Amino acid sequence: MDAAQGLLEELPDGLVVIGPDARVQIVNAEAERCTGIDREQLIGRDVRTALPLQDTTGRDWWVLTDPFTGLATRSGHRERLLVLPGEHEVLVTARYVRSGRSAPVDRVLLQLRDTEARRRLENDHAGLISTVAHELRSPLTSVKGFTSTLLRRWERLTDAQKRLMLQTVEADADRVTRLIAELLDISRMDAGRLEVKRQVVDLEALVRGQVERAVATGQPAERFRVAIASPLPEVWADPDRLEQVLSNLVGNAVRHGAGQIDISVTADPDGDGVAVVIDDEGEGIPAEHLGVVFTKFWRGSRRGGTGLGLYVVRGLVEAHGGRITVGASPAGGARFRFTLPAAVPEFVQLPGTPLLDRRQVHLPLPEFVDERASSRTPGRTTTGRTTTASASERRC
């Protein structure tokens, strides 16, 4: 019993065990902390008077639920916010233990949690709404202003003025689109429903494409230095998600960094995949902030942006089975490094064969007979080959 009692004391949530006579039998330390009531004042007493729980409208929760003489088919209650005397809030989950179906209640288990986690979640939601509202207001105001001007003064505007206004509208529309995409990704990550569609990706092309986009927006080409090792392991990843990761990291280096931006892609020395490193020569990230860079709403010392980009980046990298870290670059700025594993997905393996490395083993493409072609042309058989792995994956 001493060992069992020790485990109860170590539980992260409060636990109150109530017998069939409604008297409290067990109370652990966390339950004492959550309720603010010493266990000596609870054990042996009728729980309905020892813990006079009420709902948020002031109704007696024990009368409403009636676990001891109520419906015999109930098994408990989901977590809900209840109130103790003195407006002390606590989150309560109830479980009814019965010896058999529709049998009387043998025990009632109460799981208790304080409302700190709930408040943090509510604060996160409030912060997210405030951030989204602020980030949407600026581009939408710009779009509204420029479109109204174009409609009212189209004939009096020069072609150069029209082009500038339309380019600004397009940029602001892209900004809103990116924000919406980030929000959707966050909701999927938080719900565990983020999906990646893997295929063979050309990392060099993706990296150089990001540099070309930055140069097209006015960045000097000499600011970027790209180093691609050869040969690289074959990587299966979602090219759209990977482009999103690179766009965010390169964009951060451009906006918050300074001087030269070095991007290198090499084989991962600690695994069988690839490692991508992005260094800048800016002021870097303070050491005390390195542990919170990938959390929601982190923006560093500079304001602006949603503070969601790096949180999404970490989720996308980890969804691929990779890992991302941040530190100081040799030039004094920030260094972001992420890895991607090199592996052949199961859906491109031949049935009954072990997982193979396509860099070393070339699987033969089995032949098949196109029966439709042979039926259309008697006496003639048409042979073909299976599609490539990337094409197969596109159909999946």
UniProtKB/TrEMBL annotation:
Listed GO CC annotations: plasma membrane
Keywords: Kinase, Phosphoprotein, Transferase, Two-component regulatory system
Location within or outside the cell: Cell membrane
Ranges for domain Histidine kinase: 131-344
Catalytic activity: ATP + protein L-histidine = ADP + protein N-phospho-L-histidine
SUPFAM superfamilies: ATPase domain of HSP90 chaperone/DNA topoisomerase II/histidine kinase, Homodimeric domain of signal transducing histidine kinase, PYP-like sensor domain (PAS domain)
EC number: 2.7.13.3
Domain PAS: 7-45
Example of a GO MF term: phosphorelay sensor kinase activity
Location of the region described as Disordered in the Swiss-Prot/TrEMBL record: 369-396
Composition bias type Low complexity, residue spans: 375-396
PANTHER family cross-referenced by the UniProt entry: HISTIDINE KINASE 1, TWO-COMPONENT HISTIDINE KINASE
Protein's recorded name: histidine kinase
Organism (species): Quadrisphaera granulorum
